[in-house]
């Protein structure tokens, strides 16, 4: 049988280190996702406002987030802003700032989309039955908004987890960085480790993202 | 003097500069089946929407059983329960089953007991031939079936008057009849209704009164629907009815 280079995992604490790295990636995305959901809902509701200023500002915000590669944002926040403003923020905080900046925009847009996609007739037929505005929101509008939102936001979460691999560019030792370190350290003794290590990294990402995206498509079907 | 079930006095309704109804007057008595016809854009939907206060009005009064209904009044929920409405587009709540669509308002708004309402809901669904679909979701139903559920959802609130706005206009022709038959049986049982429709044969069969509207005004009114449809008095009504012939 071919040597797949899996032996490196049994050396020292290599496998544990890899899991540690994974935890860093997951931690950054979990915190960013939490911030994105909370602020994103607020921003999304704001975005449905009729005010021109709010519309223009949120449009510019959204465009910036869409145009700028996340990596550029990471560099700006971690290397750029720390020089210019002379503050001291860790790489991990920088990453969370950038991911939240991104997530709030996307989440806001999802919330806005879900809210305006509820047809006016849903409000009206509820009112026509004598329901108060609060009852209309509670029983008719919110459940439909959340149903539309959950699969989409789960999708956003998996994209965030995947994109955390970028944070090693600002020196954070997450799973992909650990993988590289392991490969480097074992270059001579087990040259095939490149394959084995990346295969395991693939598997780890898969194990985290797959259940999440299964859940998304289950909910999507169930609530279609 | 006897209290009218619905009385509209000098109603003014405009969208911005665009005046739709100008000093509109109407009385509807218990048991009336008022069919409202007229060219597109003449204000039929607007009139019905004003009656259950889905629209702000710019002047005049709408009384239901002698009490004014107004969008911003405290008693708006109580007043709206007296007016049932079914719209043209299927407006069922997509996230609720057929039964829950029907039960929601009586339980949440009228605070009735679930098992009592459920019994009535199943009876009404049975009458429109849909009792076996109670656990389905709206997306599993045809347009005609959805409209029948929408009628039941309005009826279970025991409204004094039922407003139907072109409820078959979005339906495939073969489903129109199943819905209109439900409405006809309601009329036979004495329900008070205001019906906007483009189905002239149906209008003729069901109406006890006809209003012909143009530009938000009653151009011709008749308590003899058969006579109206055969020989309308005004030129404009004649012309309008002609447009349905081939
Ligand atoms: N929300 C609105 N804002 C502005 N104008 C409106 C609005 N709703 C209706 N109108 C205008 O009011 C007029 C009357 O509309 P309405 O819907 O009452 O007509 P209708 O008689 O029901 O026509 P149809 O037979 O096509 O349904 C139309 O000129 C329409 O353009
Ligand atoms: Mg209309």
How much is the average pLDDT of chain A? Answer: 85
Ligand list: adenosine-5'-triphosphate, magnesium ion
> Would you tell me the structural class of the helices and strands of chain A?
mainly alpha
Strand content of chain B: 15-25%
The amount of helix of chain A comes to over 70%
Question: Strands of the largest sheet of chain B, in order across it?
Answer: 6-7-8-3-9-10
The helix content of chain B is 25-40%
Find the biggest chain interface: A-B, 20 and 25 residues
Described by the principal axes of the CA atoms, the overall outline of chain A is elongated
Largest sheet of chain A: none
**Distance separating the two termini of chain A:** 48 Å
- How much β-strand is present in the residues of chain A? under 5%
pLDDT below 50 for ≥5 consecutive residues: which ranges of chain B? Answer: none
Output the radius of gyration of chain A. 22 Å
- Give me the oligomer status: heterodimer
Strand segment tally of chain A: 0
Structure overview:
- The complex is a heterodimer of chains A (224) and B (246).
- Chain A has eight helices and no strands.
- The radius of gyration of chain A is 22 Å and the shape is elongated.
- In chain A, helix 3 crosses helix 4 (91-116).
- Chain A has a single domain (6-222), classed as MetI-like fold, CATH 1.10.3720.
- Chain A is mostly helical.
- Chain A has helices at 14-47, 52-67, 70-85, 91-116, 120-128, 133-163, 175-185, 193-222.
- The N and C termini of chain A lie far apart (48 Å).
- With 246 residues, chain B is an alpha/beta fold.
- Chain B has a domain at 93-158.
- Chain B has helices spanning 44-51, 76-81, 98-108, 114-127, 143-155, 173-188, 200-206, 225-230, 235-242; strands at 6-15, 18-28, 33-37, 59-64, 67-68, 83-86, 161-165, 193-196, 209-214, 217-222.
- In chain B, strand 1 (6-15) and strand 2 form a beta hairpin.
- Chain B starts with 5 loop residues before the first strand and ends with a helix.
- The mean pLDDT of chain B is 93.
- The chains are: A mainly alpha (224), B alpha/beta (246).
- The interface between A and B is medium-sized, with 20 and 25 residues.
- The complex binds adenosine-5'-triphosphate and magnesium ion.
- Adenosine-5'-triphosphate is lined by residues 15, 18, 20, 40-46 of chain B.
């Amino acid at each position: 049988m071919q040597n797949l280079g899996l032996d490196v995992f049994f050396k020292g604490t290599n496998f544990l280190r890899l899991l540690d790295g994974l935890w860093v990636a997951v931690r950054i995305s979990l915190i960013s996702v939490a911030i994105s959901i909370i602020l994103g809902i607020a921003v999304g509701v704001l975005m449905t406002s009729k005010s021109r200023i709010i519309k223009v500002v949120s449009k510019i915000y959204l465009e910036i987030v869409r145009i700028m590669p996340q990596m550029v944002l990471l560099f700006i926040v971690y290397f750029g802003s720390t020089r210019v403003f002379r503050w001291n923020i860790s790489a991990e905080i920088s990453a969370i700032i950038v991911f939240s900046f991104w997530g709030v925009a996307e989440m806001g847009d999802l919330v806005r989309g879900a809210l305006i996609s509820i047809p006016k007739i849903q409000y009206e037929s509820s009112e026509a039955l004598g329901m108060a505005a609060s009852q209309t929101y509670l029983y008719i509008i919110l459940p439909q908004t959340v149903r539309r939102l959950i699969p989409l936001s789960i999708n956003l979460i998996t994209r965030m987890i995947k994109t955390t691999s970028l944070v090693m560019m600002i020196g954070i030792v997450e799973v992909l960085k650990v993988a590289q370190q392991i490969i480097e350290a074992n270059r001579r003794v087990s040259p095939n480790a490149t394959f084995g290590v990346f295969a395991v990294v693939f598997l780890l990402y898969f194990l985290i993202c797959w259940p999440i995206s299964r859940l998304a498509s289950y909910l999507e079907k169930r609530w279609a | 003097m006897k209290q009218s079930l619905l009385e509209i006095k000098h109603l003014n309704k405009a969208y911005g500069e665009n005046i739709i109804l100008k000093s509109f007057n109407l009385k509807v008595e218990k048991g009336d089946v008022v069919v409202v016809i007229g060219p597109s854009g003449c204000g039929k939907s607007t009139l019905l929407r004003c009656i259950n206060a889905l629209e702000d009005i710019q002047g005049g009064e709408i009384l239901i059983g002698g009490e004014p209904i107004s969008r911003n009044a405290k008693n708006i929920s109580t007043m709206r329960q007296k007016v049932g409405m079914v719209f043209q587009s299927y407006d069922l709540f997509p996230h609720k089953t057929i039964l829950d669509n029907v039960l929601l308002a009586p339980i949440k708004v009228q605070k009735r007991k679930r098992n009592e309402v459920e019994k009535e809901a199943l009876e009404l669904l049975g009458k429109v031939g849909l009792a076996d679909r109670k656990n389905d979701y709206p997306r599993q139903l045809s347009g005609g079936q959805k409209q029948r559920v929408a009628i039941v959802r309005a009826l279970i609130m025991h409204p004094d008057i039922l407003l139907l706005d072109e409820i078959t206009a979005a339906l495939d022709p073969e489903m129109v009849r199943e819905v209109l038959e439900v409405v006809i049986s309601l009329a036979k049982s004495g329900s008070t209704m205001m019906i906007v429709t483009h189905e002239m044969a149906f209008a003729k069969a069901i109406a006890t009164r006809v209003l012909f509207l143009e530009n938000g005004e009653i151009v011709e009114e008749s308590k003899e629907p058969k006579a109206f449809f055969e020989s309308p008095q005004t030129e404009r009504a004649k012309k309008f009815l002609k447009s349905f012939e081939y």
